[in-house]
Amino acid sequence: MTLPLTVPPKPGHQTFLWSPLVTDLDTLDAHIAIIGMPYGNAYEPHAVSNDQTRAPDAVRSVTDRVCRSLERYDFDVGGPIYADRALKVVDIGNVPFDIHDQRSHFGRAEATVRKVLKAGAMPITIGGDHGIPIPIFRALDGEGPVTLIQVDVHIDWREHVNGVHDGLSSPIRRASEMAHIDQIFQIGIRAQGSARSEEVAAARAYGANIIPAFEVHDAGIDTIIDRIPDGGRYYITIDADGLDPSVMPAVEGPAPGGLLFHQVRKLIHGLVRKGRVLGMDIVEITPSTDVNNITSIVAGRLIVNLIGAAVRADYFDAPPV
Amino acid sequence: MTLPLTVPPKPGHQTFLWSPLVTDLDTLDAHIAIIGMPYGNAYEPHAVSNDQTRAPDAVRSVTDRVCRSLERYDFDVGGPIYADRALKVVDIGNVPFDIHDQRSHFGRAEATVRKVLKAGAMPITIGGDHGIPIPIFRALDGEGPVTLIQVDVHIDWREHVNGVHDGLSSPIRRASEMAHIDQIFQIGIRAQGSARSEEVAAARAYGANIIPAFEVHDAGIDTIIDRIPDGGRYYITIDADGLDPSVMPAVEGPAPGGLLFHQVRKLIHGLVRKGRVLGMDIVEITPSTDVNNITSIVAGRLIVNLIGAAVRADYFDAPPV
Amino acid sequence: MTLPLTVPPKPGHQTFLWSPLVTDLDTLDAHIAIIGMPYGNAYEPHAVSNDQTRAPDAVRSVTDRVCRSLERYDFDVGGPIYADRALKVVDIGNVPFDIHDQRSHFGRAEATVRKVLKAGAMPITIGGDHGIPIPIFRALDGEGPVTLIQVDVHIDWREHVNGVHDGLSSPIRRASEMAHIDQIFQIGIRAQGSARSEEVAAARAYGANIIPAFEVHDAGIDTIIDRIPDGGRYYITIDADGLDPSVMPAVEGPAPGGLLFHQVRKLIHGLVRKGRVLGMDIVEITPSTDVNNITSIVAGRLIVNLIGAAVRADYFDAPPV
Amino acid sequence: MTLPLTVPPKPGHQTFLWSPLVTDLDTLDAHIAIIGMPYGNAYEPHAVSNDQTRAPDAVRSVTDRVCRSLERYDFDVGGPIYADRALKVVDIGNVPFDIHDQRSHFGRAEATVRKVLKAGAMPITIGGDHGIPIPIFRALDGEGPVTLIQVDVHIDWREHVNGVHDGLSSPIRRASEMAHIDQIFQIGIRAQGSARSEEVAAARAYGANIIPAFEVHDAGIDTIIDRIPDGGRYYITIDADGLDPSVMPAVEGPAPGGLLFHQVRKLIHGLVRKGRVLGMDIVEITPSTDVNNITSIVAGRLIVNLIGAAVRADYFDAPPV
Amino acid sequence: MTLPLTVPPKPGHQTFLWSPLVTDLDTLDAHIAIIGMPYGNAYEPHAVSNDQTRAPDAVRSVTDRVCRSLERYDFDVGGPIYADRALKVVDIGNVPFDIHDQRSHFGRAEATVRKVLKAGAMPITIGGDHGIPIPIFRALDGEGPVTLIQVDVHIDWREHVNGVHDGLSSPIRRASEMAHIDQIFQIGIRAQGSARSEEVAAARAYGANIIPAFEVHDAGIDTIIDRIPDGGRYYITIDADGLDPSVMPAVEGPAPGGLLFHQVRKLIHGLVRKGRVLGMDIVEITPSTDVNNITSIVAGRLIVNLIGAAVRADYFDAPPV
Amino acid sequence: MTLPLTVPPKPGHQTFLWSPLVTDLDTLDAHIAIIGMPYGNAYEPHAVSNDQTRAPDAVRSVTDRVCRSLERYDFDVGGPIYADRALKVVDIGNVPFDIHDQRSHFGRAEATVRKVLKAGAMPITIGGDHGIPIPIFRALDGEGPVTLIQVDVHIDWREHVNGVHDGLSSPIRRASEMAHIDQIFQIGIRAQGSARSEEVAAARAYGANIIPAFEVHDAGIDTIIDRIPDGGRYYITIDADGLDPSVMPAVEGPAPGGLLFHQVRKLIHGLVRKGRVLGMDIVEITPSTDVNNITSIVAGRLIVNLIGAAVRADYFDAPPV
Question: Of the residues C43, C68, C237, D63, which has the maximum number of CB atoms within 10 A of its CB?
């Protein structure tokens, strides 16, 4: 039994922003593709279907809280999200997991993103744990040099954990090994994660820009945005725990002192203005610990800000409607 | 069966601030009247008794968390709330709903506020959804010109929704049509609501001052307060979703990036200092989604700040006790 | 039956930071001692085992969320918490409560802290309600002059409540009566507590520095830190309600407008840099109303920040490992 | 705006037993019609959209727990539910409520049932509160003499409550006034309801057979079934509180000592065997207080037992598939 | 400070059956007195205010679910609960606990019951843990010989636990030592409790009739009732865990296989018919683990059955109203 | 990396009945071995670590609710569980799951049971889903002829589901294919499961005794026990859903009308008396949907009844202590 690259959301779950569901990726015709990547590379059996696997459909489910309808005026972006243009946003469903062959999974995820990029669409991915950007990074190999912007508590630079190299502790290490990844900015860092002193040393040796959350609170997000070189090709990976637990409570490892929504929103708009944002992912949402779905709603709002900013920056060849 | 203008809170619910319950409005003798307005103008059957209808009694129920006792020192206002004066605060109960004649409801609400104003008392109303300020605005017709200050996610400028003109999507549109309403400030606006581009255009055509939440975060609330002309007669309508969901989580349509408590508190104190605050309402609290009653507590604290500020600004002819 | 000074955490609860459990306090050999003080001086029967009594073990239980492992890099402190030194941190368990003789309890608590101080260790205590710092203050009588730094909603200056003098409403009043307590800073004050005008007058007569939360938001925490004299011997008592309910929701009397984590973190680091922090307690956590254990996690993170800052300020004679 | 007789279930809710959704009742071609009747005749505003209004869609939602698939072997009925016959079961959706004209509602409900009966189909209705059988009883006027079988805690014989005659306290009184209703059996009666001594007297004057739950436990359900005359035309109305709260916990007025599932199941099978069951309703489920959806599941299982028994008793002209 | 014998329920809690609240026990004029005894004799600090202490007010709070109104027809007892007689039922509030002198507590409880008995009233007590019947038993010393009827999982025959002789593990042992206690029936016994083989031996040596729950299920409750001698003076003590956890889930030590409501109801009615029931208590309800308040409701229904049966057996000199 | 046959329970989880933990199965010396088998053979990714995988540790965690201490008198078995004998009960932990090679899992489970049987110990297994008895059945190949006693809603006779032959829908089909399995009794069957008519036909062709729950309620469990031949070698597999949802609510597919605790308890005691019970498993508990842990407690009580009955039937060569 060969699995398809993507499958529809679970029954009862709408697509994100009510966009058309497209699972035939060979004929994809879109400006933006929403991708669900529920599954990562588990360290132990309970993690195969960890809480994060439920996040893509959870975020889709709050579409009507993220956006009342597409033609409404959205004050975060200054008008209708699609700016009254014929923007082609599609939801390509979820990358499935082959229970009998876990190793095939990230290959499928990578192939999915390649199809999206080949079609000229911007991939916006909802994880899943923080392992899932790894195949996305790989698929970006024709898009470099890429400036990687990470919002996170953790720096995620482990070589491997228990022999698993593509797990949720390693995405930035993996990125650092890819020729097409250039500068790395790690914003919101605080508390502890999987990093030991040797991982911090490795990150510094690479030249990663580690920007603690406390620096953002002190200096202001504008200052941080200014530190990122203009004119780049940016890829944004947002770990929900990078934001403060009061903003996105549904995370596995909450740490106080995180970024606030208006800071991350400004970061996204700033990057769009500076150069080309190639894509974005939001990972590590654990829906079972959410409070009134606010974490999923915030995730959706971040995506909507990216779309609204990008279309206003004329990223897409979309005529007025 | 003719309904009275107001009825007592449900059994087991105290009055707000343990104030005397007065439902004979013809002999009302008070400086401040707390009014519960549970019911709005529903769009569909489930909304007749929506979650918001439970908010007036929910806020009353946390009185002992809002205020330990009236003679205690309140650091938000710099002394006992009533400033050791013989302030007459009464709770006039809830405006009831006639299940057999919905249309009579807002007439009763308006008549209630007129009685309060006629008695020379400041009306402070706990909703209810955001339709309930409409009859309050109408009752203010002898108090103009009124500067309307709204704290909200949404601009609420719909002409009607499904033929309902006095619903929760239309209060500011209705206000804009009243001769006694002058300038309108809409603060904390963000994300999406019922507004389409045409409603934004209408608001702008009127000259409404739309101040997005992000502008407040960037410029600071002091700057915003400065933009409001001094010496006015202000009426404040606060939609709980105008504050950040981390501050007031119990709302139907939470949107990240909202105002913080200290910003709204400063706005209230600032308006009291600038001129005459005629009254205030707090609406759109959904008690069933609250977290440790914090939304009701915050609502109560906002009211207590208004009362404490107003009495210190010598609004009321209340002698020392 | 004579009770020991301390007893181990309840079965199934680890020690804080997986530190060794030591209950023989006569041979204590440590730089830092973690103390649980579940029980205060109750005003009524339900308060004997109030929710706060469960906090010490609740905070211990989230050790693996506070800290992934001791050798990991902690970005709040800039390296492994213990800075790769042979720091001796021990958990000395909980001070037990004699159900047949309540009055003996605070004597036992005081004796426990004296043993810790005598061993040259810094006491870090997890309450319990806000009565529990009283015996700690007493035990500090050989450490003066002590500058007392309180983070709280409430000023806690009651002479007594219902005849109970060592209850949760009185710790700062008790402190003010001790010869070895010098200046008092009360930061984050807002809303109402047990204080009446007479308690505020008493605090002012003493010369207590009452710094409302709103002043912190306006002036910035750096300004507040600057107001505290350098070179002091500081003791820090943190009531969880001093922080904002969005940061530490599990408190009995939440009040909006509180301090944020990054402000309190900076305060702790600032005090360590200024002089000698003698010890710290965190009180008034009510685990049953927590949200995803975040309040316990924040408590742990505050402690970790103190430890990490103190070891880097060379407080302890701990050689590199 | 004229409302249709029925509308589809809310988005995201399947039909009961995945049956086809049919809302054109003029061309109805079915053996059995599933009807949702969310709305009753409210006594006060909160009851307009009481918890019971959510029950029809809640029961539909557990279809896959009630029945794994239609061709599976169901041991409650001894084979596939439809007995391998071409049984035409349709779900005709929910009778809507006109918020602007409550009085029209029961007329619409009655007309719906008349359409079903005219099409020769057996109506199985999911309420709603216990007012909703009243229009069903009315629609049965061409089916008499009808033996009414009620499973309930309460006898429901009030003339009116607060002037409302068609409310949840009155269905059996209303039935008793209809010429086509003959004998009445009221089974499971216990504790208190709306009945005063005068209602009990009225029921007895009519000749209603009041069978307390305790009599069922003592004598056994077989004895009770034997007391009901054979060869009748039965209509069954089941109030969920007639069953024990351990079986159907989601009811507004739980009373211990109720009927068990196997007793009610046997009653249904017994009635089908004795004569002709004309239809059935299940009312008074309050989904918000359910435990693991068990109340909705039990409701579904009772319906499935009726369908499976009826098809095996050759009620319907349905050929083998 | 001398405590009164009883104090009113907590604010917001009605009396049981809306009966008059009487705390002046010297002038008590009543047929039946409802007593709350929240506090027992704790084994450790957390047990001073264990969950059971909240049960008296929890049961009072569901009065309107136990009984819709006093004049309604109650099918458990065959008419209005008070049988249309001028029955004087009073609620005498809760026996308070002196936090500074625990030993005084059971003296106060005993004195309370003596006052009730002296006034000729039947005491019906809501606990509290299973220690609270001990002072009740003592107060019955003028009523002997008393046949003690216990419904329980456990036999409760411990001499003491940790030196506490009047704790929840010892009530039947204490009863066995009282001259006025004659036969003892222990019904519903199963699983494990505090009893070791020596306690079972002691019970048997005394001649206690231990009737396991499984014997009740096999033989039927009628057979068990027949085994209790007629014409006795019975006192009934019901531990909520004696009933099945599906009937009364809110208990600390649930054990499957327990008595059902209709069995215990029949036992109460049977005892009333056989002789004189002197009083009853219901203990060991833990409201925080209840499911839809059903445990409190069942407790209330058991009391209502006793009252209704007793008044119909002409226990009280109450004329028709 | 080769996995051991079993691993200890998760940190913080005690062993069942506080029995010694033994994971060296080659030197096993025991009369009874408690085995956890968390993992089955999943049909899809989320099922790899389904809720049932948490059941073994959940049941262990309620040991102190199942049994207060081993020397206490247990009225379900008529004395201390081990009957004052030197019974060797050990807990051998959980069979682990190799995330990289799922197919190896049931081999490890089977090998574990073989080790237990080889040591002469009775295996009592806590699942896990209903696939986990399959390797147990296989390991019994030297114990035949075995009479298989199943308590369940479902007959579990599927040849395979989606190509998985050893899944939770197939255990009895697999058993039927084993030469050492003789008669099969399936008790409590009702509602629907995976069986289609062809599976029922297969079961009947085999001669399986399908005994619906309703037959047990009608005829009594004694009659059913009598139908099972005496003198057999019985293996008991209990699916928690075989009991009524009011008794064991924490199951995935609850169906009303199930067996009661006292019926299943009697079945276990009856089988022990009739012949030799070789072992038992309890499966399909979903801890996340439990109510006050009652399902885990009931599971533990069933095991305790088996142990207590078996030791009293002299199954084990255990001398008095």
Answer: C237
Local structure of F191: helix, strand or coil: coil
The answer to the question of whether D154 is labelled as a binding residue is yes
Q: What digits encode the pLDDT tens for the residues D115-156?
A: 999 999 999 999 999 999 999 999 999 998 999 999 999 999
Tokens found for residue E25: 């026990």
Backbone angles phi, psi at A299, to 5 degrees: -55, -45
Cβ of E192 within 8 Å of Cβ of F292? The answer is no
What 8-state DSSP symbol labels residue F122?
A: E
Contact between D126 and D93 under an 8 Å Cβ cutoff? The reply is: no
Q: How far apart are CA E98 and CA F247, in angstroms?
A: 40
Mutate to test the interface with E, among C1, C10, C49, C289 (most CBs of E within 10 A): C49
Contact F119, F125 (CB under 8 A): no
End-to-end CA distance of chain B: 43
- Torsion angle of alpha carbons F64, F70, F71, F77, nearest 10°? 100
Kindly tell me the number of DSSP H helices and DSSP E strands found in chain B.
Answer: 11, 10
pLDDT of residue F1: 54
What does the alpha-carbon distance between residue E99 and residue C23 come to, in Å, rounded to a whole number? 29
Asked if residues C21 and C90 have their Cβ atoms less than 8 Å apart, the reply is: yes
Q: C78 preceded by cis ω (within 30°)?
A: no
Nearest CB neighbour to E253, from listed F65, F80, F247? F65
Closest Cα in chain E to C100: E102
ipTM of the complex in this document: 0.95
Residue partners of C169: CB distance under 8 A and separation at least 6: C130, C154, C156, C158, C161, C193, C194
Q: B6: which residues sit within 8 A by CB, 6+ positions away? A: B23, B25, B35, B36, B92, B93, B94, B95, B96, B112
| Chain F interface mutation, best of D262, D266, D269, highest count of F Cβ atoms under 10 Å | D262
Question: What are the domain boundaries of chain D?
Answer: 16-312
Question: Is the preceding peptide bond at B145 cis, omega within 30 degrees of 0?
Answer: yes
Q: DSSP secondary-structure letter at C21?
A: B
In this structure, the strands spanning D192-196 and E72-74 are: antiparallel
User: What angle (nearest 5°) sits at the alpha carbon of residue F101, between those of residues F97 and F106?
Assistant: 55
Residue B11 has pLDDT above 80, yes or no: no
d(CA E302, CA E62): 13
Q: Which of E246, E245, E262 is nearest to E302 (CA)?
A: E262
At least 3 CB pairs under 8 A between chains E and A: no
In angstroms and rounded to an integer, the radius of gyration of the C-alpha atoms of chain E is: 18
User: Residues near B78 by Cβ (< 8 Å), separated by ≥ 6?
Assistant: B308, B312
Residue D189: list chain E partners with CB under 8 A. Answer: 75
Question: How many whole angstroms separate alpha carbon A224 and alpha carbon A236?
Answer: 15
D13 or A288, which is more confident: A288
Task: Give me Rg for the CA atoms of chain C.
Answer: 18
Give the nearest chain E residue to F298 (CA atoms). Answer: E256
Return the CATH fold of F16-312.
Answer: Arginase; Chain A (3.40.800)
How many CB atoms are located within 10 Å of the residue C99 CB? 22
What's the pLDDT tens digit per position in F244-299?
Answer: 999 999 999 999 999 999 999 999 999 999 999 999 999 999 999 999 999 999 99
Give the number of other Cβ atoms within 10 Å of residue B2's Cβ. Answer: 5
Categorize the per-residue pLDDT at E119 as very low, low, confident or very high, splitting at 50, 70 and 90.
Answer: very high
Q: How many CB atoms lie within 10 A of CB E179?
A: 8
Which of A95, A103, A98 has its CA nearest to residue A25?
Answer: A95
Q: Which of A190-194, A233-237, E129-133, F97-101 has the lowest mean pLDDT?
A: F97-101
N-terminal to C-terminal alpha carbon distance within chain E:
43
